[in-house]
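Reopening this ticket.

The earlier resolution said the output was attached, but the attachment link was broken on my side. Pasting everything inline this time so it's all in one place.
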Amino acid sequence: MLSEVRPDGTGWDAFTASVAPDGSLRSYHTVDVDRGDVLFDIAELPSGRYLALGTTGYVQNPTGASISESAQPLLVLLGPDGTLMQNLG
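Inline output:
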């Protein structure tokens, strides 16, 4: 999600959301690690926390649709409510 429009093309953050069985939104949180972040998949752990993977550190071209090629893999531990607990590198 675009959390903040910045002139350098950063400001994109990943987000987590919890949706009830009836489709209503329970909660959502942004996950801001480094510049541009995206989460591709989230898995629940037996502890009730979550392991999420994606990419971090990308920058979108502020005048076009391309993104930087300097992005890095992202693996994070999220709390039971979806908030960022730890970047596992």
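Reporter confirms the inline version is readable. The radius of gyration is 14 Å. The chain has a mean pLDDT of 87.
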